[in-house]
Amino acid sequence: MRAFEATIAADERIEPRDWMPDEYRASLIRQIAQHAHSEIIGMQPEANWLTRAPSLRRKAILLAKVQDEAGHGLYLYGAAETLGVDREELLDKLHTGRQKYSSIFNYPTLTWADVGAIGWLVDGAAITNQVPLCRCSYGPYARAMVRICKEESFHQRQGYELLLALSRGTEAQHAMAQDAVNRWWWPSLMMFGPPDAESPHTARSMAWGIKRHTNDELRQRFVDICVPQAESLGLTLPDPDLRWNEERGRHDFGAIDWEEFRRVLRGRGPCNEQRLSRRRRAHEEGAWVREAAAAHAAKRAARAAA
Ligand code: ACO
Fold it and tell me: Cys-Cys crosslink for 13: which of 122, 123, 139, 252, Cβ 3.0 to 4.6 Å?
């Protein structure tokens, strides 16, 4: 106990073999599993556009991006496993609705511009939230986040560049980009989680060095980053209350519809059912791959032992 507290106080890393309080372990498993689930469920909204990308270049970029998300899921399940849980068990909890994934992936991708809005806003929000996680007190999670953030930064830039091309294109393309930003803005702000006053885990996670900033702090940082970027894109953010507050040196912004957030978390968002049923089906259809890999590993192990 004392060694754990000293490590946290010195801002050093806790490693898998170190002693840690049960609640610390449980909270990390909860957060890392939710994060891993978000990465693999997050492949679906964009994969929807893989076969309809407008050029070979766009298709190659999008394919790489969706594959990166799968990779992020794998690093994160790997990080969770260092805490003594089994990947199968975590997937089972996702498939039976006992563990969450990010609210944002329950919204539909209606047009090609949504791919740009996801890159710019959703991956932009993800980076804002995840860069501080590179300094998380749990070593394997912090290290996984370093590579993930580098890749997320490429994703954010491809989204920005895609939206810029549409914004500078024909009138219809500009309108399509604006419509996508209008639909993704508010759900992106919800990604940061409930307001601090209603966030049950923040205080504990901050004391343990799992989280470095509160949900509201990161949400504010994200708004401040996006405002000048929207201007450069020639697009507007759909919030009539968004304005610079000289006194605070930050932007004020309008009220978030937390009822919508809670509805999505309860499984009643626009795409919850579709996302989970596709995920379950993909898992079932992949059973033969897992069986073959396990049989191959057993054969190699038997050969090595002989
Ligand atoms: N979507 C779904 N669930 C959420 C969301 C969200 N956007 N925000 C908060 N929640 C859940 C929490 O998981 C928690 O649920 P639980 O008690 O059943 O576990 C509950 O709402 C209360 O929230 P908090 O007390 O604020 O929870 P926490 O301190 O864990 O903060 C946060 C939530 C900010 C998402 C944190 O877990 C985190 O930083 N996670 C890592 C990043 C991540 O998961 N990103 C996923 C999307 S990014 C991407 O994949 C591209």
Answer: 139
Gap from CA of 199 to ligand 1 centroid (Å): 9
pLDDT-derived band at 306, boundaries 50, 70, 90: confident
> Which pairs from 55-62 meet CB under 8 Å and 24+ separation?
58/162, 61/158, 62/115
Q: What is the ipTM of this complex?
A: 0.98
Using the structure block, give the residue that is written with the tokens 């549409």: 166
pLDDT tens-digit series, residues 39-72: 999 999 999 999 999 999 999 999 999 999 999 9
Longest dimension (CA), the chain: 74
Contacts of 286 (CB under 8 A, 6+ apart): none
Report the residue among 27, 34, 191 best suited for mutation to probe ligand 1: largest number of ligand atoms under 8 A from its CB: 34
Ligand 1, pocket residues at CB < 6 Å: 30-31, 34-35, 38-39, 42, 100, 102-103, 126, 129-130, 190-194, 199-202, 205, 211, 215, 265
The confidence band for 1, taking pLDDT boundaries of 50, 70 and 90, is confident
